[in-house]
Amino acid sequence: MEGTLITLIGNPNVGKTTIFNALTGLKQHVGNWPGVTVEKKEGEFEHGGKRFHVVDLPGVYALTAYSIDEKIARDFIVREKPDLVVDIVDASNLQRNLYLTLQLLEIGANVLVALNKIDLAEEKGIKIDPRELERVLGVSVIPMVASRGEGIKELKDAILKNLGRKPEPVKYPNFEPYIERLIRIIGLDGRLVKEYNPRWLAIKLLEGDEDAKGIVGGSPLRDEIMRELIKVKKELQKKHGDIELALADERYGIISKIAESAIVEREERMTFSEMLDEVLTHKYLGIPIFIGVMWAVFKFTFDVSAPFSDIIDWFFSWLGDSVGTHISNDALSSLLRDGIIAGLGSVLVFLPPIAFLFLAFSWLEDSGYMARAAFVMDRVMHRFGLHGKSVIPMIMGFGCNVPAIMATRTLEDEKDRLLTILVNPLMSCSARLPVYMLFAGAFFAGREGTAITSMYLLGIGLALVIAWLFRKVIFKGEPSYFIMELPPYNRPNWRAIIGATWSRTEKFLRKAGTIIFAGVVVVWLLSVTGPGGYLGSEALENGALLSKSWVAVIGHALQPLFSPMGWDWRAGVALFFGFIAKEVVVGTLGVLYGVGEENLPHVIAASGTFTPVTAYAFMAFVLIYVPCVATIGAIKGEAGWKWALFAVVYELILAYIVALVIVGIGGALA
């Protein structure tokens, strides 16, 4: 890596992302850590004539390596030996955060403490003396309110100043003689001393850490070290019982003394966050509020994005007309106008609502509400047999099912993980939104937000029912409980929100330019050709010609399956190609109806092919049926082909049943 290597670490929700963005600005990129799906953020900045390479480690509470995130964080610090570790500490939860600080000092890292959220601590009635905290810890402490940009310059100055320091190790009075005995033997192996901190290795061996045992296992002094370890542990067990628990108690005792010295004023107050939580996480009000928030998000998405969608409509209509006028070759003109421009335009017209949806979700995440949504829904989900940790992948599924399915790796129990994977595709990802927008605009004018919200609620409801059924029949047993921390509410950090929105929207754009583009071109090709050869561009406007195309052959083969729902062969073709990506459904309908994105809702509404009831059933079918190719690939990667095929079959059957029920009930009420 180029430049001086520094890393950011801290508990979840301490403002680490805000500080990372403030340091690196636009000079950052995101990937995955090798071998896992955990996100890896890296960036760069320059200060004082030096160039710094910054690695943002996952949010962790400790370095015990019980979880993937903890293992990643600990391995990076131990093996990469960054020049400086910036430990971001939440001032309003000082004692809990200092546990990680002590473990960093045990490793022998060059630590700098960024004492963030000073304002929230003061709101809670807590006043901390940073200089006293600096004295008792033996490392530099920078007070900050990162959400307002306060302390960023001071942090950069401190990073420059603290390079090359070596903080004093943390001393544990009740364990020091035993730690020293192990250090003396470990210190005889020059390779171990060069690659690892002997003190950290000794402490980890006392705690029974498997990674530490593996490190020592490669030493020529392995037998001597293990013999001494056995003696030491026997002596300690007589005095303290469980050594790992005793060491944790020793850390907390030291943390308590540090906090007592550094906190100069403490007054118990109810904070604004706590007052909001009294309402937003209320036993009875929490779920109705969550539903109301989701409805408001979709109403906002539809109404605010409409003018931007109109501009895109106009542009692609103008572009298509221009191409059709200036190119005389019928096949080439039709490919460009009816295939590429009209097809791609019918998908890109939904770029504004998707971007605004991501904007709303990013705002809710940044504000702290999404954690409350997970907390509120956890109470319900547990009753239906889902593990509490399933909440996070399920909410992630609203964005994209692929990373949501990968996120199930945090579930330790295999049954809980498989169950979460199988029901996750029922969470309505952003790829379905263009279909909802099309049919809601065509058949539910003025009630678009309500119609779209109902799709998301239907997906949640079906996921819970299927989870309950699978838990009773396939994955028998009780799920374990989930303990989560609610972060404080934050003022919107628009830089972070816009950054997250762009990152997610960019993925849609890449998809539109590759998978969706290819799908729409294939549909066009199958529409203007048939068993008899090239039919001409008139096939897209002439029903008699279109009926001779390959796409009509596919559609008529599928029509008997969908005729009970009142859908014609074009709907069947759209669903068939929607297997590639759900957005292709809209592009396919645009090609088959022979119109651009501007007039597609009006043409579908006027065609008589759909009624409001059959249109709603079509939306539900798109919500439920076969996941896209990428999602099936993710299920196969996480659970194997057996469960991937099972997911395809059960969702097809479920989609058919639900669509039939909607049509049946709708017809009876009409």
So what's the overall shape?
Answer: elongated
Give me the CATH architecture of the domain at 4-161, please.
Answer: 3-Layer(aba) Sandwich
The percent range for helix content is: 55-70%
Strand content: 5-15%
Distance between the termini: 67 Å
Number of helices: 31
Mean pLDDT: 83
Ranges where pLDDT stays below 50 over 5 or more residues in a row are: none
Which strand order spans the largest sheet, edge to edge or round the barrel? 2-3-4-1-5-6-8
Question: What is the CATH topology classification name of the domain at 4-161?
Answer: Rossmann fold
Number of E-state strands = 11
- The CATH class of the domain at 4-161: Alpha Beta
CATH superfamily of the domain at 4-161: P-loop containing nucleotide triphosphate hydrolases
What's the alpha carbon Rg, rounded to whole Å? 29 Å
* SSE-based structural type: alpha/beta
Please outline the major beta sheet. Answer: 7 strands, mixed
Would you give an account of this structure?
With 670 residues, the protein is of the alpha/beta class. Among the domains are: 4-161, P-loop containing nucleotide triphosphate hydrolases (Rossmann fold, 3-Layer(aba) Sandwich); 176-266, Orthogonal Bundle (Helix Hairpins); 515-669, no CATH class. 63% of the residues lie in helices and 8% in strands. The chain contains 31 helices and 11 strands. The strands form 3 sheets. It has a 7-stranded mixed sheet, with helices on both faces. Strands 7-9 form a two-stranded antiparallel sheet. Strands 10-11 form a two-stranded antiparallel sheet. A hairpin with a 2-residue loop joins strand 3 (39-47) and strand 4. Helix 7 (176-186) packs antiparallel against helix 11, helix 15 runs antiparallel to helix 23 (494-528) and helix 15 packs across helix 27.
